[in-house]
Queue: 4 jobs
Job 1
Amino acid sequence: MKCNNAWLGIDNPFLTALASGFELHEAVVEDWLALQQAAQADGIDCQLLSSYRNFHRQLQIWNKKWRGEATLFDKYGVALDYRQLDDNGKIEAILTWSALPGGSRHHWGTDIDVFDKRAVEQCDNGFDLVDAEYRSGGPCYPLAQWLDNNLSRFGFFRPFTEDNNGVSVELWHLSHAKTAADFEQQRNVNALADVIAGADMEGKDAVLSRIDELYHRYVLNEGI
Ligand SMILES: [Zn+2]
């Protein structure tokens, strides 16, 4: 296949911009718009929070968290004391909620984070994109239930549904199964290690010293 860096968030040739400005893989747009319209018809204002994200953007997120410029959370969503974390503690705290640069499913344009915009605006509590907001009593609970019942009709699935000490449960994260499968097959730890080694990335020696384990645990999300 051509463009084999696309899975790493580099030179993805398949992107198309929606009217909202969000970028998606061209093979995903029709199913996404159909899902959104069906949700709308059922009274759910399903909107994008995040879609395609390139390597550079993921690198910025990583570096910001590594430097303590953004709050780190444990898998229960409890804020961690940055000063108490050694390099491995930082790596695990970041990867619980954010991907390695090069290892994010958002690099593919096939994966999206969604929320119920109208419900969030009506509830007036701000919005943190945390699990409780998608559970009973939260503003995005009707959306989460609607997705449980309808997601697969539009070709989507949730890749992060189990707490296995890898990536935390993300009820908001959807993936277009058929399109994402092509990228899943291209993933390999050597190419990921190469791109990280060449990046201006905080903590990269600590990451590269355990890249095989991190790749399986967080990129393939096999957990431990
Ligand atoms: Zn996501």
Job 2
Amino acid sequence: MTTESTRIKVWDLPTRIFHWSLALSFLGAYITSEGERMRAIHVMFGYTVLGLVAFRIMWGLIGTHHARFASFITGPAKIKSYLQSLLRRAPEHHVGHNPAGALAIVVLLLLGISTPALGLLAYNDIGPEWIGDVHQIVANGMMAMVAVHLAGVVVSSFLHRENLARAMLTGYKLGATSEGIGGTRRIIGILLLLAVIGFWVGYGWTNPGVLQAATQQATGQTDGDDD
Ligand code: HEM
Ligand code: HEM
């Protein structure tokens, strides 16, 4: 065990761009989900969630050390021992994701695929009518999981005396130099950001409903009738 504590890079740029774009797109899809008026924006954000999670799965295989699934996905024994260490108020320290956080992340990624996939079926009238209801239930399940995730981030930040949200913004934490990642993979992060923005611009361009709904929202116009 080392006591070395310097500022080290933990989260590469693609992981951070992924995280904040995912949070924004998920909340965007959730806020615009009710009724037909905002449907084009809803679908745009929903597809973004799907694309981002697809990217993250690939990055979990080839990304930098702490972003790789192999470095943070563990079995029930380690999750239990981590949770017990929290109860003892002597939390085991993990530079990357802790075992309990990792479980929440895997569930969030699975929900990040199934929610938009079910929405896609409902949108294209594929399958029975209740698919739309299942889509809504799974989306609410994802929102509940986000709440658990946020509570976990707050509790761990206090117990570890470490601002985890800031680390997800800057990429840096305190730790042993040997645990830092070599590079931040800046180019891939920038390409990911450009892909998200490019998709939104392209989608808005080809689906006038996106712009209409956005301007209606901005000018405070309500639904009214559709005639
Ligand atoms: C609103 C929807 C959100 C979703 C769907 C979400 C999802 C995720 C996912 C999938 C990860 C894993 C990151 C990775 O390795 O790729 C993660 C990590 C993380 N998220 Fe979120 N997140 C959300 C909002 C937030 C917010 C608002 C905050 C800030 C308060 C936050 C703070 C963090 C932190 C600090 C980590 C790293 C946890 C650690 O250190 O192990 N998240 N989140
Ligand atoms: C993570 C992404 C998504 C979230 C969080 C989400 C969330 C929701 C929620 C909560 C509803 C129920 C709204 C209500 O009636 O109160 C809904 C409805 C709907 N969503 Fe999504 N959605 C997502 C992705 C998508 C995608 C990608 C599509 C289409 C390609 C889509 C298409 C629809 C449709 C068609 C409905 C209406 C279903 C019906 O009433 O039968 N959604 N969504």
Job 3
Amino acid sequence: MSNMIILMGSVRKGGNTDLLVQAFAEGARRNNTVEIISVADYRVNPCIGCNSCFTREGNRCFQEDDMVQIYEKLKNADIVVAASPVYFYGISAQLKAVVDRLHTPMRNTFSIKKLGLLLVGAAGLPELFDAILMQYRMILDYFQLEDIGSVLVRGVREKGDIKGNAALGEAYELGLSIGMENKICRG
Ligand SMILES: Cc1cc2nc3c(=O)[nH]c(=O)nc-3n(C[C@H](O)[C@H](O)[C@H](O)COP(=O)(O)O)c2cc1C
């Protein structure tokens, strides 16, 4: 069993990101230990670029905010899944604040091996997720992480628009596939 943390980046409880995450987590829980962190429930300041995490024990940030709790949870994570609504073609500010604060511990302290991505957005544009996907691929490459896959959902704007969308089934199936290979190998 792998330990998976899902960073849920929308403030809207029961919104489209939240429902997509729940479908994914339902599948993933079959073969993994899964914890969903709704990042908006934590008071996380942005990184200020002081670089003091380079030398501090555990590469932890000097800021004593709720990121302390998130660091603790990520210490034992093998897989991280980032989930966000598209905000101006990027991820939400709440999720970005958490991601930036992971920069040094991701390199030195954590043992995260795999990364996944769940995104929702209102527009139907083919290019809607391009900027985030570019960033995602660069992060995979920089941190030498394995991509577990992604589910990208266009055309969902109001809270709950995603209900009945085939993407929820797709997210469940992607979640279910994670860790399945270990099960098959062990017989
Ligand atoms: C500040 C803000 C910026 C947004 N920017 C975009 C955007 O650039 N492209 C887009 O398609 N949708 C954009 N949206 C719409 C959301 O991505 C969409 O409503 C999404 O379904 C919200 O997900 P949630 O229900 O999980 O909060 C934006 C919404 C907000 C509040």
Job 4
Amino acid sequence: MLKISDLKVRYGGIEAVKGISLEVPEGQIVTLIGANGAGKSTTLRTIAGLVKPAEGRIQLKGEDITGLAPDKIVTQGITLVPEGRHVFPDMTVLENLKIGAYLRKDSLEEDLKWIYDLFPRLKERSWQAAGTLSGGEQQMLAVGRALMSHPKIMMMDEPSLGLAPIVVKGIFDIIREVNRQGVTILLIEQNANMALKVADLAYVMETGHITLSGPGQELMKDEAVKKAYLGK
Ligand SMILES: Nc1ncnc2c1ncn2[C@@H]1O[C@H](COP(=O)(O)OP(=O)(O)O)[C@@H](O)[C@H]1O
Ligand SMILES: [Mg+2]
């Protein structure tokens, strides 16, 4: 569904992504793992149109979307749940969700029902200021807001960061459920153990390169992956 070919991204003189190629097949959960600074966020931000690539191509269902503006990328069906969640703290849960639908308001009520069915907790807190939600609830809201754009692909940048283990488990349950409902997932995680468990396909990124790829379950058994990312 999503195909990235020979992507290079530079910040000034620094090359953060050094010619990577990867594919995200329709209906799958794909994960990108790797140490801090490997270029994972840069890759997602480039797909989302927030950063312009120096070289390479990004295709969605065979169509070239390289370098499109962020709102056009959302319209094409790709959404990003950014690292750190970035909900609007002074706005209510409901207002935050409505912002996610700013490019398509045609089925607002239906979409809200979908999100509230997925996250009953958000429904209960519909009128609460987003800034007063717990970390896990804010992550739910960030996911809900992203889903309001009806994405074909939802990209998530470190959704488990800073959350307690029990809450992280909840977030991964949500990722599975959203995927089961037909949304393709591209997930970045520091929590390689959890990410590889849910991933149909996984890529390992090191200093701007992709060094390994394969089914998540297979990479979990890889000796180098175990040593570097699973603490075994
Ligand atoms: N806005 C930026 N300006 C300059 N350098 C950046 C910027 N964002 C990231 N970098 C650099 O690009 C490299 C990759 O960063 P990033 O994509 O955030 O990695 P990861 O998400 O894997 O931790 C790092 O060396 C980082 O310092
Ligand atoms: Mg990052």
